[in-house]
Amino acid sequence: MQKWVTEQTITQQQSGISVRELLRLWLIPKRMQHFLRVRQDVLVNGVYRPYSMLVEAGDVVRLVVQADELQTPMQTYLSDSQQVMPILYENDDLLVINKPTGIKSHPNRPDEAGTVMNFLTAQLASQNVRPAMVHRLDMATSGAMIVAKTPIVVPILDRLIGDKTIARTYKAWVAGHFDNLSGEFTNQIGRDPDDRRKRALDGLQPQTALTYYKVLREAKTATLVELTLATGRTHQLRVHLAGNGHAILGDPLYASVLEQRAASRLMLHAANIRLKVPFTDEIIDVGAVLPKDFVAYDG
């Protein structure tokens, strides 16, 4: 059975707590905690320790996770070396890439290639690592995207996203000008009753949604805005902006024909990700510089 291993050195801030408390602090899922204990796959300085034992600064904790302990089975992707994904940040457990526009995040079929996950499968092969999905960006969206290098951290990152501990900031060129330089959109978002591909304000089975915006620059007929997601609904930014009269330029689903023709692609860029690095006390800010078409756009 396939196994994955992570080794972490206990920091001063983590010193003096039990193994059980440490695993909770690391956001290890209960199912995984159970198997780690039963299989004695938690080693402190090379020796199994009962969950009640305390760890000290400088101790090396080794977790061995087996495939049947994963809540979601590890997916495999075809290797495709046609493109190299730019890496903005990398450690042993995860990386943040700068996804180009026009590339899907993941394949929809086992025999599909040409996506971020296919390219990273080839790119990480020399490390004997297979990428794992954490979150996705729409095909037309560019910018910062987190990818796991081990399935051990996938539920941890899922939890951080769900708890809003991971902050994602976007930039977009949108139609028109705003009355206020900053504000928020609070409309609920549900399924579009007329188009299965789309979402709509107050659509079917609506869910709470919150987006913050800040005006960065105004052009003749468009505005560059900074957008922060407080929730993570499908197409949230695109629906909130279009539904409030400021469609993202180039949006093939939600913009008018004129607004679509105003740009050669969806003018949405994941500009920054702020996250607490799993297993550590470190908080990192990872920025993806604006593409040339964003900088040059004059509305």
UniProtKB/TrEMBL annotation:
Its EC number is 5.4.99.-. The active site is at residue 138. One of its GO terms (biological process) is enzyme-directed rRNA pseudouridine synthesis. Residues 93-242 form the Pseudouridine synthase RsuA/RluA-like domain. It holds the Pfam family PseudoU_synth_2. SUPFAM superfamilies: Pseudouridine synthase (SSF55120). It catalyses: a uridine in RNA = a pseudouridine in RNA. Transmembrane segments: none annotated. InterPro entries: PsdUridine_synth_cat_dom_sf, PsdUridine_synth_RluA-like_CS, PsdUridine_synth_RluC/D, PsdUridine_synth_RsuA/RluA, RluA_PseudoU_synthase. Keywords: Isomerase. One of its GO terms (molecular function) is pseudouridine synthase activity. Belongs to the pseudouridine synthase RluA family. Responsible for synthesis of pseudouridine from uracil. This is Pseudouridine synthase.
